[in-house]
Design a protein that fits this description.
The chain is mainly alpha-helical. It contains 15 helices and 4 strands. Strands 1-2 form a two-stranded antiparallel sheet. A two-stranded antiparallel sheet has the order 3-4. The chain is flat and about 70 Å long. The protein starts with 7 loop residues before the first strand and ends in a 6-residue tail after the last helix.
């Protein structure tokens, strides 16, 4: 008697367990082949060499930077920390004065990452494991919001901050009218709103793949939804949270448009990207300051990515192979 493995379950084609292992082995063999290794090395060099050149240039004297390429450093090496001193702590308008802008970037970025991660995880759990009327339509609406360019929301959001919300002459919500460092709140709010569609979509897909038996067992034991979310779901979705947090961190840290519009361009609230854009636009010939300033701006994202890399890879690969 020949036993045929199930190929169709509930009307959907399902890969047999034996085939899953074969597919995984074939994919793994292709990814570890000699050709794949060569391609990976070439891509790594294309990404690494410019960054390495920027790092070397940031320590070279002004005359050397303007006189020859960074690769000449290996034939006539010379170091200086004057570029970083001028860019970070210089007091004149010619210098970067990036230290305060660097702090502003940190103040903007950290809450703009934590708030979306918190709200998206709660919303994703509700859409994945709570049964309520209209749940599917809400999810479809959130998915559709990803195609809306954020530039379309800038003017309405500015109007919301400056004028509030009124209907038929009745003021429903007052204007925020924030000044000085309080404008950070506007930037946090804007980045959180713009991150919700993608974050909810990613985390929902991850949570929906969790075993239903695990959730049902927790309910049988008397656990409420907050308890299930905190004790069961959160430990299992750490890779997905880390992946989304990395994406959001890189987006907010490198953002220029949103921060410039909602935080302004002054030294008290503007992030690092605003100051770098000013340096590049008004003093494009000051290459020694631009190289050191640019490297300062990428140090923190590199540290964040490298420290969370293992979670990032696990989050991307999660759910790629069932079983």
């Amino acid at each position: 008697m020949t036993v045929v493995p199930p190929a169709v379950v509930s009307g959907e084609t399902e890969v047999a367990p034996g085939d899953q292992g074969g597919v995984a082995k074939r994919v793994g063999k292709k990814l570890t082949s000699r050709t794949a290794t060569v391609v990976s090395i070439v891509i790594a060099l294309l990404w690494t060499v410019p960054t390495f050149g920027l790092f070397i240039s940031s320590f070279r004297p002004e005359n050397d930077i303007k006189g020859n390429g960074w690769w000449n450093f290996f034939t006539s090496p010379s170091f200086t920390l004057e570029n970083y001193q001028e860019v970070l702590f210089g007091t004149s308008n010619v210098n970067g004065r990036l230290a305060s802008y660097f702090i502003n970037s940190i103040v903007i970025t950290i809450p703009s990452v934590l708030f979306p991660v918190f709200f998206c995880s709660l919303a994703a759990y509700a859409l994945a494991w709570l049964n309520f009327k209209g749940r599917d339509w809400i999810y479809i609406g959130i998915f559709a919001l990803q195609i809306v360019p954020l530039q379309m929301a800038l003017v309405p959001l500015l109007s919301f901050f400056s004028k509030g919300v009124s209907l038929a002459g009745i003021q429903l919500l007052p204007a925020w009218d924030l000044q000085g460092p309080d404008k950070f709140i506007q930037v946090w709010f804007a980045h959180t709103c713009f991150a919700l569609p993608l974050g909810i979509f990613l985390l929902h897909n991850f949570m929906a793949e969790l075993p239903r038996d695990l959730i049902e067992a927790a309910k049988v034991d008397g656990a409420s939804h907050p308890k299930i979310f905190r004790s069961v779901v959160l430990p299992l979705i750490v890779p997905a949270l880390a992946s989304f947090a990395i994406f959001q961190f890189l987006w907010v840290w490198n953002d220029l448009l949103v921060a410039l519009i909602f935080a302004g361009g002054n030294q008290r609230t503007a992030p690092l990207t605003v100051r770098l854009a000013e340096m590049a636009g008004t003093r494009g010939n000051e290459w020694q300051r631009l190289t050191s300033g640019a490297f300062i701006s990428i140090v923190v994202p590199l540290i964040v990515f490298l420290s969370l890399q293992r979670y990032f890879v696990r989050g991307l690969l999660a759910g790629s192979v069932k079983g």
